Description:
By secondary structure, the protein is of the alpha/beta class.
Amino acid sequence: xxxxxxxxxxxxxxxxxxxxxxxxxxxxxxxxxxxIGIQWRSxxxxxxxxxxxxxxxxxxxxxxxxxxxxxxxxxxxxADKKNDIYQQMLEIMNPNDILPGIHxxxxxxxxSNYQMIIASASANAPKEIKKLELENYFPLxxxxxxxxxxxxxxxxxxxxxxxxxxxVDQCIGIDDGVVGVESINAANVVSIGVGDPTVLNMADxxxxxxxxxxxxxxxxxxxx
Length: 224
Ligand code: BG6
Ligand code: MG
């Protein structure tokens, strides 16, 4: 395990860490699922949290027993419909939607000269960062067009470290989803899981809420 003193960059998931747009994702997927006769179940939430658009749809279809019902084209159309609903919900997003503690944490990181980047599985990340008025902190967002495999593969977090010109042992990754923490771990980056520690038990460091994200807390909880 790398030393805390070596860390120079922080790789941030967006949904569930910077803002709670995860709620919008789950609501819009629920509408799509119910429109094709799949009853929403709470375990679907954890299964798709952090997965990219088409992987989320495939998982919903699998759980609903409809994995062979739709052609690739029909699936694209369902995924597009979900994105339309999601983007409508995004219209009202504003800086009040930044999660508790995040502003202070970003200011603290900047004051201590850490680099930061958004490593999100969402193609809507640039739009959300604009709506949240955080472009100043995040001029860098991993472009998914250059990514072969989305989370839980390591690609998004590896690309994030590379864009900061840092080695993976100089970075920390922060995510709220199981697939996201798995992606950080697969990239060999120290992982912070924010959320239920029994669900995110594969993370190197666990915090229950974004409010706990401070450099002092991270240093204190650094794995031995
Ligand atoms: C992740 C969300 O950040 O982005 C997932 O947690 C979502 O729920 C994924 O499916 C992809 O988002 P988008 O905006 O590209 O459909
Ligand atoms: Mg997330």
